[in-house]
């Protein structure tokens, strides 16, 4: 979850998010390099009192400053394309969860074993026990280290289901099923908020995943049937 | 002898050319008066411009008078014979400002800074008014005790344990690392 003054990405809870974080850091490094170089050149030119008013053209420098950015872009594009295809890989999910967005709550269905359905409303703020705008009454239990398939849809207007620390976001569109796939590699609570304007209480329908061991998950399934 | 058509045409063309040149010269004279054109200047037009990077304007600054003409004749001889006043008169006849006058600081930065600060302070006054009369109060969760409780919960949950807040907490010790 985000903490105060959180400028960067949250710590990742899934391997794909780790890769996204690494790619972000790699690209940011290149961007800082370019910005420093351009800033240095700008300052140098501004403070230089020797001006050639009649400078017209120079073929060699034009070639250099076309080829060099192309090479830099290749260094960005290669990991980017690798990650793009990695995110779209098919994986054999063990658990399938359906989530439907309503105005203004999420409902979840676990139909793999026994039909479990529940709604998840935002919990009213209580200083001692929860976080404002983030906690819910019924969390989504998900087993650790298990490939999860999540099918997202909506019942009324467009919503969007997201968990930033998993790098997952997909619109919940009425009449459409969107599928995302993820794997949780550490236990804990992972928060998200509805990401598509859906009416008056759009800011008040959060998402909360509880990552638990497989045993605990199976206990929960059997106790909830 | 009647002029034959070819000669007549040549004469007409010459008269046209001369009249064009005279018109050009006349319009130049009408714009700059009795001032000599002495060079190319900044852009080839007969205009007077005081610029450090174009030090030789296209025209003299003042119109020619008999006094200046006399000085110009004297200028053609030994310069040591010219008095300081005469040198200054010759300079001011050809130029408006000296280099020192051109480069002298204008003090414009004081007005710019002053006006910028006035407008910024106006902005701050507007912000203060907005804070007092327009904005709602912050929610309860912004109070320090509430934020402490939230921090306690975040650490208890182990939120962002890799590089974030929980990685700075020593769980064995029960205090920050």
Automatic annotation (TrEMBL), chain A:
UniProt cofactor(s): Cu cation
Major localization class: mitochondrion
GO molecular function: copper ion binding; cytochrome-c oxidase activity; oxidoreductase activity
Signal peptide: none
Coiled coil residues, start to end: none
Keyword flag Membrane: yes
Subcellular location: Mitochondrion inner membrane
Record keywords: Copper, Electron transport, Magnesium, Membrane, Metal-binding, Mitochondrion, Mitochondrion inner membrane, Respiratory chain, Translocase, Transmembrane, Transmembrane helix, Transport
SUPFAM superfamilies linked to this entry: Cupredoxins, Cytochrome c oxidase subunit II-like, transmembrane region
GO biological process, one term: ATP synthesis coupled electron transport
CDD domains: CcO_II_C
UniProt remark on cofactor binding: Binds a copper A center.
Binding partners and assembly: Component of the cytochrome c oxidase (complex IV, CIV), a multisubunit enzyme composed of a catalytic core of 3 subunits and several supernumerary subunits. The complex exists as a monomer or a dimer and forms supercomplexes (SCs) in the inner mitochondrial membrane with ubiquinol-cytochrome c oxidoreductase (cytochrome b-c1 complex, complex III, CIII).
Protein's UniProt name: Cytochrome c oxidase subunit 2
The gene coding this protein: cox2
TrEMBL record, chain B:
Keyword Mitochondrion: yes
Annotated GO biological process: mitochondrial electron transport, cytochrome c to oxygen
Main location: mitochondrion
UniProt GO MF annotations: oxidoreductase activity
Keyword Membrane included in the entry's annotation: yes
Keywords: Membrane, Mitochondrion, Mitochondrion inner membrane, Oxidoreductase, Transit peptide, Transmembrane, Transmembrane helix
UniProt pathway: Energy metabolism; oxidative phosphorylation
TM ranges: 112-130
Gene Ontology terms: cellular component: mitochondrial inner membrane; respiratory chain complex IV
InterPro entries per the UniProt record, alphabetical: Cyt_c_oxidase_su4, Cyt_c_oxidase_su4_fam, Cyt_c_oxidase_su4_sf
A Pfam cross-reference name: COX4
Subcellular location: Mitochondrion inner membrane
Membrane topology field: Single-pass membrane protein
Physiological role: Component of the cytochrome c oxidase, the last enzyme in the mitochondrial electron transport chain which drives oxidative phosphorylation.
Subunit composition and interactions: Component of the cytochrome c oxidase (complex IV, CIV), a multisubunit enzyme composed of 14 subunits.
Family (UniProt): Belongs to the cytochrome c oxidase IV family.
Protein's name according to its UniProt entry: Cytochrome c oxidase subunit 4
Protein's organism: Cherax quadricarinatus
Species classification: Eukaryota, Metazoa, Ecdysozoa, Arthropoda, Crustacea
